[in-house]
Structures are given as structure tokens and as C-alpha cells.
Amino acid sequence: MPQPTDPHEDHLDDLPPARPVHYAEQALLGALLLNPHRLTDIGDLDASQFGNHAHGALFQAMRTAPLPDPETHRSDPGWLNIVLDGARPHAPGLTASYLHTLIQVCPWPKHAPTYARMIRADHARRTLLMHAERLAQTATDTTLPNPAVTTLAQADTLGQFLDTLAGQFAPHPGSLPRTPVPGTPAGRSSEEALDEERLLLATATAHPAELKDMRWLQPDDFTLPLHATVWQFLTTLAHNGEPVDPITVLWEAQHRGLLADGPDPRDLIALVSTPVGSPEYWGERVLQRALLARAFDVGTRITSYAEDPTNTPHQLITGSRRALADLTTLRTRWQRSISPTPPPPRQPRSPAVSRAGPPPRATAASARALR
């Protein structure tokens, strides 16, 4: 919600209190109105980085208006009028009295570069919040034709923005954000997800040989701990060359203690006895769901960081990069799952044979010599 232009309106009951950056914007604009030549001291600041639209319009008008002569500016309000006339088409609520208010509320005009850094930092936080919210929304958008690819592209955009921020704010040693991280969202174990995991376990039991090429799927990708444990010992049996069928699965489950407080033996046999399709297909479905769930978790975690005004830009960068790193390993496994298995390398011929060519045919003279 845009901040009010008039500081006296902050006391209205139906408006929230202005955030600290609002006063930083006022102080910066007041310093520039007093001394327009400080525009060259505030670094790379853009009008779009202001949280208040009217403040941004006023700053843009300052950027475009020719700088006045310092001596003339002290006694002539001509430059102030030019700036006001340039900003009014974009912010009709601006008045000459508000410009004088900005000058009055500026504590120290020489602190203009510091005020500008505050504005850039708050804009970085708001932009990071936008990217994080977009990542979480993309990860849960069921209308996307290729949700994994689109979500990973959004994660790349967020990562590129963090790289840009790292170049704008000088790094310094600091702790990670102390913002409480939200827990795993409810509803992740949907019935559709459970059905896909059941079908995977059943087809894996029917076609255990295919599990040797599915190392990209891990127990942590499953939404139900029971399914994760069954998958773990299914792959172990397959990799060890042990017989795999519903009865051997049941026997292994008994040794692992799954039947003590878990499913009835008949239920477990039924779980792995209805194969449909191939394990690879269902494995990719399970992994994609895990990837999207992880992306959603990352987006909500970074959103929590960005919504916390106590975090500095450096903390936001460090914490957000750590969060994105949690997606990297799963992303690597996902890309491995959808990439075709490369053909085995061709065995090179022996260099000596290839250089020498076929053995020479025996001649008549050599044959007589051997007699």
C-alpha cells in the first residue's frame, strides 16, 4: 500500500503507521531540495526504488531538471517550482507546502548518501519478497504444462537477482537470518501423491531390474515414511541381486520392524501387488512432486526472511542463497532422471592392431622357406 504523501496524515486511524524507509525517503528528498548538487553523491538510485510513488516522481523530476546555480538557489525558488511542475503530472497530490515540509524534516543534508543506501536496501528487500512469492506460487500452480521446468526457471531468476544484490551491497561477515522458518506445509501428502507412490512401489516390485538405473530417486522424496522405507529396502534388494516379489518384500519389512506398529501383512502385500506402467514413469512423478514441494518450501522460507525488516541486505542474501542451495541437489537428481541414459562407450581397438593392420598373407617364397 502506498505511503501517504503528507506526514500529518500518518495519524489517521484508518492508515497504518509509516515504515522507517518512508522517513528516509523524506530526508533524502529534503536534502536534495536544499542542495540539488548532492544528486551526484548518492550513487546509483532510481525513482522506481522509492516505496512512495509521489516520492519517486519527485526524485525523477529532480534527475531530469537542470541543476541550478548554487548561489542563485539559496534565494530563488525557481528550481523547486521546476521540480514540482515536472512531478505533478505523475503525482497530482504534490504541493509546494509538502516540498517545504520535506526540507524541514531532513535532519542532516550531508547524510544524503546514507539515506539513499537505506532506500536501496528496502527496495532490495521488497524485490526479493516479490521473487520469493512468485517462486512459491509457481511451484503450486497446477495449470502449468511443465511445472518443474517453469519452477526451476523462476528459481534461476531469483538466484540471478541475489547475484545482482551481492554486487550492490558490500559483503561483510554476518550471521544468518534469525527469522523463524515456517514448517512443512500441510497437505503435501495428498491422496494423489500417495497413489503415485503406491503405484511406484508395486511396479518396482514387479520390475526390480529397472531400479538399478533409478539412483536419482531417494527415500526423502516420498511423502509417507512407510513408502520411503519400503523403497529403501526394495532398492537394496535389487542392487544386491536378491529375489524381489511381494513375499520377499513382506519378509524384509518384518526384519525392519515395519509390521510391529505398521500395516497388516495383507495390506503390505496388496500395496506391492498391483503394478501399472513402469517404475521410471512413477519415479519421475514422485521426484517432480518432491521438487515442487522443495521449491515451495524455499520460496516460503525466503518470503519469511524478506518480510522480516530486522534482516540486513547481507543477511537476506546469505539466507536466501542457503535456501536455494537446498533445491540444488534435488534439481540435479531431477535433471538426471529426465536425461536419457547415454550409450556405453565404444571399446577402442588395440593401438598396435590398428596401426599394423591385418597380418600379411604368406607368400610362396616364405612357404618354401618353412619346409
What does this molecule look like?
The structure is a single chain. With 371 residues, the protein is mainly α. It is 58% helix and 0% strand. It has 15 helices and no strands. The longest helix has 29 residues, at 279-307. The protein is rod-shaped. It starts with 19 loop residues before the first helix and ends with a helix. Mean pLDDT is 87; it is low at 7-12 and 350-371.
Q: How far apart, in Å, are the first and last alpha carbons? A: 107 Å
Write down how many β-strands occur, each being a DSSP E stretch of 2 or more residues.
0
Residues in helices, as a percent range: 55-70%
**Main sheet record:** none
pLDDT < 50 stretches: 7-12, 350-371
Percent in strands: under 5%
Structural class: mainly alpha
Number of helices: 15
Topology, element by element:
Elements: H1 20-34, H2 53-64, H3 70-73, H4 78-87, H5 96-105, H6 112-139, H7 147-168, H8 191-206, H9 225-239, H10 246-255, H11 265-271, H12 279-307, H13 313-338, H14 351-356, H15 364-370
Helix pairs in contact: 1-2, 1-5, 1-6, 2-4, 6-7, 6-12, 7-12, 7-13, 8-9, 8-12, 10-11, 12-13
In short:
This protein has 371 residues and is mainly α. It is 58% helix and 0% strand. It has helices spanning 20-34, 53-64, 70-73, 78-87, 96-105, 112-139, 147-168, 191-206, 225-239, 246-255, 265-271, 279-307, 313-338, 351-356, 364-370.
